[in-house]
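re: ur question from yesterday

yeah so i grabbed the chain u mentioned. its 153 aa long if i counted rite. heres the sequnce exactly as i have it in my notes:
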Amino acid sequence: MSGMLISIEKSNNDEVKSTASTAFCIKGTFDPDDITKTLGLTPSRSWKINDPIVSKKFQFDAGAKRLFSMWSYGYNDSYNGDISRQIRNTISDLRPRIPLIKEFVEKNNCQVYIQVVCDTTAGDVTPNFSIDTDIIDFCKLVGAKIDVDMNIF
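ran it thru and got these structure tokens back, copy pasting raw so excuse formatting
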């Protein structure tokens, strides 16, 4: 997913190896080109059901195929440790398109979520994680859940 790579400095100026990314995701059996055209936005990542799986991070069996379609939209911004701010930036372009998102999701029986992935090293600064009511309101309007992965290495 597209997101942002962050570097937060400790008071002793040692670099913290923390990253955080957020993305708005639509998952189902649709053609991602359809939602791209509907919203007039270019996704950060997308794939169609049955597309071959290609990953630099994980190894898959030869011929492995995607089990669902995905369309994700992320917003890159400098990260200051505030996840709500990052989510707000991610969904800012989507707010005026809420009726279009709702119609597409209902018509295509899709799952919708905001994905938040935070990676940090044990002992480093961890991101401030709170969800403000304006984000909850957006999620309610489009039927999205918030999926959070907090990885500590």
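noticed a couple things. Confidence is low (pLDDT under 50) at residues 1-13. also Residues 112 and 143 are 6 Å apart (CA to CA).
anyway ttyl
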